[in-house]
Amino acid sequence: KVQHPALDEWAPLDLALTRFTFSTLKRFFPEYDLTWLAEEMEISLPQELNFELEGKNAMRAREYFSHVKNTPLIIPEVMWAKRRILVMEYVTGKRPDDLEYFDKNGIDRDEVSAALARIFNEMIFGTNAPLHCDPHGGNIAIRVNNARKHPHNFD
Q1: Could you say which residues form the signal peptide (predicted)?
Q2: Which entry of 72, 89, 102, 105 is 20 to 30 Å from 115 by CA?
Q3: Is 134 one of the catalytic residues?
Q4: Residue 123's Cα: distance from chain center in Å?
Q5: Do the Cβ atoms of 93 and 141 come closer than 8 Å?
């Protein structure tokens, strides 16, 4: 994962525009106060753009879930991480909305859904659990793994 070279240049402008937009919205529509979101973004965006921190968080999640039994979760190993470059182990898989792949490989859609729900519930409610706040199809992949026993034949 390599960060776009112009991101450092544009991120402060994006944050300023967000702050301006939400404060203007609040001025005309006080009941829609989203200034808290702009404040939160000013803290979280620089952290999200730091791939070294992302790598550390991935390793923390990997360690945490190594102790959660019967969870078909694979978190790739971080091989090298700097602020704008992240190199991780290559792990194959298909998007969670590739239902044809599931059907062709005998992967139960309900079991995938249940496994994802369990993983994210563990992140939210588990003691000292790492929380992944970007659970979209680009960050989740499903792959067949017939070595696993029922009910999961997937990672």
Answers
A1: none
A2: 89
A3: yes
A4: 11
A5: yes
